[in-house]
Backbone:
């Protein structure tokens, strides 16, 4: 008679999968905490700036709840402050957020469910989370993506609310040296990517060369934008491994 109890058996495949998802989600939270701290500081600045431009209290907070993009929100606020009008401000913000189109396309293959669910999961695609969730070869860890965004969004909204209520002077962030916090976290993410990917190192080197060449002819911002063309290397270095993996998993059929 077999007296082996179910408790003595090892974890099932489902339990292992659940454990792996939890680990990925927690790993995302750990990355997201640092990004959230930097985002919080930036959000305070946005809240204070919007309040100083006459937005009132509620509109900046609602904007952060819905848009959740520092670059787009600052573009929106700056355009309105410059007298560009609402249509111009919306177009400026939309153009900046256009980067999420290729980012969403890249991660789409790793999302799950029907159209509505995939659209909801896609809301987790923000810059820092997208980079942190990248596994290489054009693949992404969706649970790490969710975990990293889960802490950033409330921090962004809370920072905006604090900035609106307290309204610190715009120079405070630069005075305390906090304006380098957000770029510093992105630099750490980049360094982590460079350590694990030869293609990333090649793209980074090429981007640096392009920026160094363009900076003599165009403003620094445009030079950096042009340098991003080096990321097109991912079209070759990312899609091919995915196709190769699918062939192997399918037994070559």
Residues:
């Amino acid at each position: 008679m077999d007296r082996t109890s179910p408790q003595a058996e090892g974890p099932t495949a489902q339990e292992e999968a659940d454990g792996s998802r939890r680990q990925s989600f927690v790993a995302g939270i750990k990355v997201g905490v640092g990004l959230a701290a930097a985002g919080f500081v930036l959000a305070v600045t946005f809240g204070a700036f919007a309040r100083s431009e006459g937005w009132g209290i509620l509109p900046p907070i609602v904007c952060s709840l819905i848009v959740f993009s520092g670059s787009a929100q600052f573009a929106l606020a700056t355009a309105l402050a410059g007298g560009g009008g609402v249509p111009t401000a919306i177009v400026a913000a939309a153009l900046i957020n256009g980067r999420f189109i290729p980012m969403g396309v890249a991660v789409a293959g790793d999302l799950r469910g029907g159209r509505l669910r995939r659209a909801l999961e896609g809301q987790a695609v923000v810059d820092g989370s997208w980079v942190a969730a990248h596994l290489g070869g054009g693949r992404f860890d969706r649970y790490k993506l969710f975990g990293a965004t889960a802490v950033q969004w409330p921090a962004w909204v809370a920072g905006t609310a604090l900035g609106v209520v307290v309204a610190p002077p715009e120079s405070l962030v630069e005075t305390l040296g906090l304006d380098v916090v957000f770029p510093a976290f992105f630099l750490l993410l980049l360094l982590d990517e460079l350590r694990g990917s030869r293609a990333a190192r090649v793209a980074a080197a090429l981007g640096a060369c392009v920026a160094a060449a363009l900076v003599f002819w165009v403003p620094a911002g445009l030079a950096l934008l042009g340098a991003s063309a080096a990321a097109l290397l991912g079209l070759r270095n990312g899609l091919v491994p995915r196709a190769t993996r699918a062939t192997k998993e399918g037994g070559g059929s």
